[in-house]
Structures are given as structure tokens and as C-alpha cells.
Amino acid sequence: MKINIVKTLVTLSTPIISLLTMSRSIAQEWHPDAVIQSMYAGVAYIHGYKAIPRVYKPIPAGSRTRCGVMVAMNAFYCPLDHSIYISNDMIAFAYRFGDAALAYIIGHEYAHAMQNAYGFNRNNSHITELQADCLSGFYMKAVPNIVFDQRDIQEIQALAYSIGDHNRWSRNHHGTPSQRLKAVTIGMSASNLLGCF
User: Fold this and answer.
1) pTM of the full structure
2) In this predicted model, what pLDDT tens digit does every residue of 105-143 receive, in sequence order?
3) β-strands 54-59, 83-87: how paired?
4) What's the per-residue H, E or C state across 132-193?
5) How far is Cα 42 from Cα 183, in angstroms, rounded to an integer?
6) Between helices 99-118 and 126-142, what is the axis angle to 10°?
7) For the chain, N or C: smaller number of CB within 10 Å?
8) Each residue's pLDDT tens digit, 48-98
């Protein structure tokens, strides 16, 4: 990934971050905080800085949140405090695929915040999850401050496929590997948010 805005200030609800032109070699990955802040800033911009959730990271497993205890290998949106939580080990898991995989997770959870804030698709089914995958793909394509190259896209698609499941009758079913891959790919090719509805 590389940031393509030169000396642009993006105002968040908390700190102001300066986004400078950066690029990386094949062997270089962004620090997780840079990925999280950049995705957060970009998606907030897309939504006109409305209904911006807080982000808490990294959260150790066992930590209490307004929506219960953080379990290992998890990231979630909590509607009770309009916040996104990401566990330490989920960040480490994402980085097994690459820094762009973490951007996908941030986009997915931010999408849940928007589903809640704007009242669309709140039924907590695998359809809700696949729509969040699609929106995450769109966010990654549309954020003005990050450029995802082909290697990044492969990282995103590999993670999406790997976290799919076949537990269709579980309330935690997020979609099969193929469905999750297809949803994020559709989002990355959508011309606007409506491509995910």
C-alpha cells in the first residue's frame, strides 16, 4: 500500500493525522497503527465524517468491552458504544497475509458501524456479513489516501477466502470462503456504495 496524498491533513474526531507520500518495497509492510489510521481516515472521509465509530486496538483477549469480553482472534463492531475492537492476535493473523489484510478487517468492521448508524441490513445474518465484506472492498478501492496494488489485492482476497466458513447453521456464520471472496471482490470493482446493496 502507499499513501498518495501529499501533505494533506485529515481531521478525525480525535487526533489530526498528517498523511505524507509513502511507498514500500515488496518486503516492506506498514505498521498496524498506520494501516488502521489510514483506513479509518479514508472511510470517515467517504462518509463525510458522519457517524464515525471509535477504534480500540490492540485489545488483549479477555478484555471487557461494552459488548462483552474480547475473545481471541476477533474483531467486531459494538453498537452499544459505537466502537470497533480488534484483538492483538487478529492483527497478527492479518499480517500473516500482509498489511492490506488488516485494511480489509478495518473496512469490514467500519461497514458494520455504517449498517448500524444508517439502519440498513441489521439482521445479523451471513447476508449482513457479506454486505460488510462488499463495503470493505469498496472502501479500499475508494479511500483517497491509500493505493492498493495487485499484491495487496491478493492479500485481501487470500484473507477473505481463509476466514470463510461452512457452518451455515451457526449464528456466527459469515459466509463460505467463496462467498466472502466474491463479496470483497465485487466491492473492489463497484463504482459506488450502491454496488453492495
Assistant:
1) 0.85
2) 999 999 999 999 988 876 778 899 999 999 999 999 999
3) parallel
4) HHHHHHHHHHHCCCCECCHHHHHHHHHHHHHCCCCCCCCCCCCCCHHHHHHHHHHHHHCCCH
5) 20
6) 120
7) C
8) 999 999 998 889 999 999 999 999 999 999 999 999 999 999 999 999 999
